[in-house]
Amino acid sequence: MLHGSSSSGNGYHRVGKQRGGQPRRGRRGSGVGFRSSHYSQQLHVPPCTEYDKAYFRAYSDIGIHEEMIKDHVRTSTYRAAIMQYQDSISGKVVMDVGCGTGILAIFCANAGAKRVYAVDASDIAFQATEIVKSNNLSDKVIVLHGRVEDVNIEEMVDVIISEWMGYLLLYETMLPSVIFARDKWLKPGGLILPSHATLYMAPVTHSVRYHESVDFWRDVYGINMTSMLPLAKQCAFEEPCVETITGENVLTWPSAVIHVDCYTVLAKELESISAKYKFVSMLQAPLHGFALWFDVEFDGPHIPSNEHVQDFERSSSELILHPNNTCKKRIKSNEAIVLSTAPEDDPTHWQQTLIYFYEPIELKQNQIIEGSITLSQSKENARFLNIHLEYSRSGGRSFVKETAMR
Predict the structure, then answer these.
(1) pTM of the model
(2) What's the pLDDT tens digit per position in 282-337?
(3) Separation of alpha carbons 92 and 246, rounded Å
(4) Is 172 an active-site residue?
(5) Residue ranges of the domains in the chain?
(6) Which of 149, 163, 269, 297 is catalytic?
(7) Is residue 380 annotated as part of the catalytic site, yes or no?
(8) H/E stretch holding 235
(9) Does CATH place domain 37-405 in 2.60.40.10?
(10) For residue 200, what are the β-bridge partners?
(11) Is 237 within 8 Å of 356 (Cβ atoms)?
(12) Could you tell me how far CA 320 lies from the centroid of its own chain?
């Protein structure tokens, strides 16, 4: 897939910060979705916790923004999407949620936006203001320093743009802020960029990684250090690892953990997400764990039909997609631009997220791996993700791994 070109992602194509609340780095109305202006006044404003304040302070670090901007796949795909929807942006009012340095807001202004509200709770907003001035766009781009839940904007907007995705798609829990902005300010029929997202998972083999982290201790300059193995496994594999793998590491086609429609999704639906999976190994190889990655799609303005509205009035448990459940599968536009973080695509600063086992499982070709995964917001800090993974192979015992992305 060519990033920035018209394409439709499926998470995998055929080929022959998880640290103490720090953001990703080192890779790093009426009808559902459209709320009336009257309804928007009744929206619940979540409190700004000490964890939130620490999160915003972390994003004041210029290095984080440098890394994201230097991610060519990320930044060029956003720019391509803005230009593809220039007709929906030109002469219109735009909101950039979590604007950072303001680069996406400036892209929108250059695409002809009448006005852009660039909102960021981090002190990087002060630099964004200076960048806007340096580019003679102060008459178009209004930088607002504060949470989108707290700022005051006196008009509805035509477009919302945001780069809200974290590791595992939902880490950092920024999407609820986009949902809040959508429900309070987006006009019916407005545009959200990106519009849809899908989180994928697949079993992987990665003997090199296991050897480097664990087997190293078996013989260290001729010294037997095997007593270090339990600690080495715990240190290397207890928490999710953000790494870059290739398609050669992946043992099967992936399954979707969840599809997110940014026009209709509700914040409460993101608090806990569960999916069952069943894979058939295409190779005989040691199974070292699972990889997760995501695609986001930039699709056009959305008007929900009555059928779609009724569909989303179901309970949140019914909204979670089983990988084999296609009853709600959306038909993607052939014109939609896709930003993919899949292993076989060009690398991004998101890389892939790996959940390793402490001990590999030997798989035979055509052997079944099945189980379930649950991603839930931490009660301690909603920006963290707790992960509950159940897995087994056919004819073997079942295992459970509990971990968290902090």
Answers:
(1) 0.86
(2) 999 999 999 999 999 999 876 655 443 334 333 333 333 333 333 333 344 557 89
(3) 41
(4) yes
(5) 37-405
(6) 163
(7) no
(8) helix 229-237
(9) no
(10) 256, 293
(11) yes
(12) 16
